[in-house]
Every structure is written in C-alpha cells, then in structure tokens.
Amino acid sequence: MFAESVDVVIGVDTHRDSHALALVDAGLGVLIVEERIEANREGYRRALKVASGCGQRRLWAVEGTGSYGACLARYLQQRGERVLELERPARSGSRGRAKSDALDALRAARAALTGEPLAELRSGGRREALRVLLVSREASVAVRRRGLNQLRALVLTAPAELRERLLGLPKGELVKRCIALRPRPGQQPQLRGTLLALRSCGRQVKLASREAATLERELAALVQQLSPQLLSHYGVGPITAAQLLVSWSHPGRLRSEAAFARLAGAAPIPCSSGKTIRHRLDRGGDRQLNRALHTIVLARRRGDQRTIAYVQRRISEGKTEREAIRSLSATTPAASTD
Q1: What is the Cα 117 distance to its own chain's centre?
Q2: What are the residues whose beta carbons fall under 8 Å from the beta carbon of 27, sequence distance 6 or more?
Q3: Topology of 8-120 in CATH?
Q4: Cβ neighbours of residue 280 closer than 8 Å, sequence gap 6 or more
C-alpha cells in the first residue's frame, strides 16, 4: 500500500517501559534494522536517529497510540513524521505462532505494507483535554452513583426511627440530612455505626457531585471554544458534544458520514430473513460515542417535534418504536467543527 510512497516503514510494538522497533525496506519488504528503545524522550530521540539513517521518506506504524505509544506518537508528530495507528492483532487462533516484541514490531511494519487498514492519529491539545476530563468526570459520577446506592441500602436496614426519618427523601435532601447526622457517645452500637456510615456516604456523594460539576463546567467551556455550533443542536449537551469531538478528533480523520457511523456503531447491518426485511445497528465501534448518540436520540425523542413526527411516521409504516429509534441513531449527522 505504501511501497511506492515511502522508503522505509517502522513498525513499533509498544509497552510501558520500552518499545520494540522493526525497520523494513518498503520496496523489498525485508528487515533492515531491529531496535529496542526506552519509553522516554531519550529513547524517542534514538528511534528517530536510527530511522533517519535508513531513508528520508518514512512511515511509522505504531500500535497502542492511545496508551503505551501515545507519547512516542506525539513526539514523532511534533517533528513532522508521518505516524499512523495500527490496531493490535487479535490473539485468538495464534497458538503455535512465534511471539516476541521484535516479531510483533516486524508484523506491524509488514501489515502496513500489505494494506492492512491504518488510522490517522487523534489530535492532542484541547481534544486530549476533553478526553481526560471526560474520563475523570465518569469516575466522579460512578462514585456518586455508588454512594447514593449505598445510602439507600443503609437507610433500608437502619433502626426504625432513623429509617422513618430518611426513607423516601429525594436524593439531594437525603444527602443533606445524612451529612448533618451527629453520632454521640453512649449511643447503641448499631445506631452509632449506622449514623457514622450514613454521614460518611453522604460526604462522599457531596464531594463527588462537586468534582463532577467542576469538570462539567470545564468541559462546557472547551466545547464552546472548539465547536459552539454543536451545542445549538437539540438534545446535544456539553457531555455528549465533548464525546463527539473526542471520537471525531479533527477534520480529515474520517472519510465520510458513513465512516463516522461505522465508528459510532450506528451503521445499519442487514439482518433480514424470509419475508421480514429489517436492519440492526453495528455492535462494534466506539461504545462511548455510541452511548452519546443514543443519549441525543432519546432527548430528541422526548422534546423535538420533528423527531417525534419521524418516529410516529415509521411506526405507522409498520416499524416498532425500537426500530424507529435505531433508524434515528443511524441517521444522526456526524459531528463537525468546520
């Protein structure tokens, strides 16, 4: 695939502390050099120096650019190198095959030469800021959810008087009252222990809620800078918009709306049988992006008149509501910051 446009392909098998490199002649497909470098800036400089001695037109096929290979990929991009991401090979069915880091690097290089699909790297900068903020917010939301579930479970088994005071309260009021609980010396062990546990859970929920709110404000500000028009679409909020931008990354990374649908797990897949003609959605792709699209669709289903009319029309044509929502997911336009 790249044999005519590059002189050398450098396959990289990445790990936490070191990376294995295999430099392959693009025209002949033969191994030129094998190298192992440390996963730090000194190692990256060494890798670039070795590659520079083997040809001027270079392509780097790097595995794990979203994890162990992220720093290497950014280092190379900043120096004008052409870097593409190679999906890690499936390990199923590989019993009996030779396995080493050097061989994995060689396979990465030859996979690029044989035409295996390579992906453009996602951009860094504000897009990467969105990604890490989304990860941190998700953790805070999970802590809050777990804390609320624990609070409700503790209330159910609390002593009768305490249970009657707290059972059925809205979550905000429940957290407020639990934080205000004051265990005192001399109380029965069960009551005192329950009061301490409820107050502790309440504090965890309050802290996690504050952290999530802080992260959401930062996400909203970044989305407003990157793509304010995205927030003007009905049902698109800062969190879903941030996920769309993280997955989409930058202009030119995705070839078409069809490619975006494939990435989002929203591409229609035929699953007809006999006289039944129907489609389902692709179950692969970026599941966080898929969840964001589904959230947008559900929001539009509740309040957007055009979406409500579309669902009603599809139901009148013989589709189920679930199938109509699938169609909505498949036709939701791709994110764009152009």
Answers
A1: 20
A2: 3, 7
A3: Nucleotidyltransferase; domain 5 (3.30.420)
A4: 268, 269, 271, 326
Enter the tokens of residue 255.
């070839």
DSSP letter assigned to residue 230? G
For residue 59, what are its two tokens?
């392509």
Rounded Cα gap, residues 40 and 76, in angstroms: 12
Angstrom CA distances, 154 to 167, 196, 199, 204, stand at 10, 11, 11, 14
- CA pair distance 191, 306, nearest whole angstrom: 55
pLDDT digits (tens, 9 = 90+) for 164-216: 999 989 999 999 999 999 988 888 999 999 999 999 999 999 999 999 999 99
Contact (CB, 8 A) for 239 and 219: yes
**Tokens at 160, concatenated:** 């009768």
pLDDT digits (tens, 9 = 90+) for 52-86: 988 889 999 998 888 898 899 989 988 989 888 88
- Residue 153 structure tokens: 């479970």
**Cα–Cα distance, 128 to 142 (Å, whole number):** 21
For tokens 């698109």, what's the residue?
Answer: 236
User: Rounded to a whole number, what is the distance in angstroms from the first to the last CA of the chain?
Assistant: 30
Q: What angle do CA 88, 93, 98 make, to 5 degrees?
A: 75
Q: Of all helices (H) and strands (E), which one includes residue 85?
A: strand 82-86
**Has this prediction a pTM greater than 0.70?**
yes
Helices 238-248 and 189-226, packing angle to 10 deg: 60
